[in-house]
Amino acid sequence: MMGFMYLLIIVAFIFSLWAQFRVKGSFNRWSQVPNQNGLTGYEAARRMLDVNGLSDIPIEPVRGTLTDHYDPIHRVVRLSEPVYYERSISAVSVACHEVGHAIQHKVHYPMLVLRHRMFPVVNFASGVAPFMLIAGFLFSSLNLIGLGIIFFSAAVAFQLVTLPVEFNASNRARQVMVEQGFIRNEEERGVAKVLNAAALTYVAAALVSVLELLRLILVYTSSRD
Questions:
Q1: In terms of pTM, does the model score above 0.85?
Q2: 102 burial level (CB within 10 Å; 0-12, 13-18, 19+)
Q3: Catalytic residue list
Q4: Which long-range contacts (CB under 8 A, 24 or more apart) does 143-149 make?
Q5: What does the pLDDT look like over 142-182, one tens digit per residue?
């Protein structure tokens, strides 16, 4: 059983690497394709915020690639420089996805609210879990291993809650982009490629974490027997 579990973890890890490669590849490919309306990522994000009654939320450029995010504490959308300034399919797709999170914040999307409430606990648990597990295995302490598993479970739960948050943000982005005419019908395929590739990275990360949690639980239960 344990051998099969290790095999699953290796497969999931390979899937995770492939997902990261795919998101970079999709982003780079569609970065070379200008959107027909000539919108920059900033312009698309600004319009999407405005039509959803979020004119007070600023948009800031940040360095790096794929460093885009929505900051719910300071209520600001931050776009990587390639997304902020460029007029590509990738730029408007990623920009509108991040605005999707701002809209979730405004309407109190339940899974986003849950993720925000979980964050302080998860931030502590994810920092403590590795030390608990290492100490537990070093000193053959089932109690420490059990505590480590509990803390690690919180981090895994956070990743699982993140999945619907990310998918929902992408769905909101695609809907607004079509309704407001940010993209044309023939451009929807490119948008889907970019957003679906990004979503796969979250799926892969969650899968690896779930399998690692199951492995730890198996180790713990077999040690008790």
A1: yes
A2: buried
A3: 98
A4: 145/216, 145/219, 145/220, 145/223, 146/220, 148/216, 149/213, 149/216, 149/217, 149/220
A5: 999 999 999 999 999 999 999 999 999 999 999 999 998 99
